[in-house]
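Notes from hallway chat w/ T.B., transcribed later so I don't forget. T.B. wanted the structure written out for a chain they're using in a teaching module, and asked if we could keep both sequence and C-alpha cells in one place. Agreed to drop them here.
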Amino acid sequence: MVSTILVVDDERAGRDTIEAILASEGYCLEMAENGMQALEKTRALLPDVILLDVMMPGMTGFEVCQTIRSEFAIAEIPIIMITALDDHESMINGLKAGADDFITKPFDRYELRARLVGITRLNRYRKILDERANFEEAHHKLMLAYEATIEGWSRAMDMRDKETEGHTLRVTEMTVRLGNAMNMDDEQLIQARRGALLHDMGKLGVPDQILFKPGALSEDEWVIMRKHPQLAYEMLEQIEYLRPALDIPYCHHEKWDGSGYPRGLKGEEIPLAARLFAVVDVWDALISDRPYRPAMPKEDALAYIQRQAGRHFDPQVVEAFLKEIVQSYL
C-alpha cells in the first residue's frame, strides 16, 4: 500500500528539497503552494501525512492545521509542521493548532525519512482498523436487515392464519431454549432460530382452500399439504444466507422411526434442529385451539409427547423438553 504525502510550502525550493529527499522512498508525493490549495487537496486525496510549512502568505500553516482538525472527514490525518530551527513559539502554536510532530529547516534527510516511516505506518494501521470497524458495522447492519426480513416473513405467515397467530414466535422461543438445553453452540442456535421462524414458509405454495379448511383433510388434500417442506426447501435453498437454516423448514415433519415426510429420514439422520422443533411444534399445536378441534388439556398433551418418544420424537429431546420447557406450562 503506497502512502500519499501532501507537501505544503509556498516556496518552490522547499517543495523541491522535500521531493528530492523522498523521491526514492516509494511515496506518492502531492504538492500544494498555499493554504487553500492544501485544504482542497486534503479533502480530495485524504493523504496519509501532511508536511505543512508554518510561514505562508495568506493562510498560515497554523490556520490550515486548525481547519483540518475542525472537519470530521479529514480531522485525523497526521500533520507534521515544518518550522525554522529553534522556533519554539511556532512549535507551541503548532501544538495548539493540532500538529502531531515537527521537523526543522534545514532538513536532515535521515530524520525526515525516519519520522515519515513511523507516522505513515501508524496511520496505515489506523486506516486498516477504521476500515475493519466500518466493515463490521456494515455487516452488523446487514445482519439486522436480514433478521428483520425473516421476522417480517414469519409475521406475514401468521397473519394469513388468525387461528395460529403467535404460533411461530412461541415455537421459535421454545426451540432456542431447548437448543440451549441440548448444548447447541451459538451458530447452531442462530440457524435454529431462523429455521423456526421460517418453518411454515412452504405453506405459501398450498392452496388456501386446503390450508384453511375447517374440517379434516382428504387423502388427496394431505398429499398436497405434505409437499410444504419440499416447497420451503425449493423457495429458500437459492438464498445462500438461509441455506444453513433449512433443517427445520425441510425436516420438521420427519419422524424418529422413519415414518415422516418428505424423505422418510430416521433417527439421527434427521438434523438436530428439526428434532427439537418437531417436539415444540406438536406441543404448541396440541395446546392451542384450532378450527377443527379445541385445545387439548396440557396434561393430555404431555402424555402424548411422552408416548411418542422413540416413535415420532427423539427420546433424548423429549427428556430435555420435559425438564426445560414443560415445567413452565404446568
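Follow-up for T.B.: The chain has 14 helices and five strands. Might be a good example for the class.
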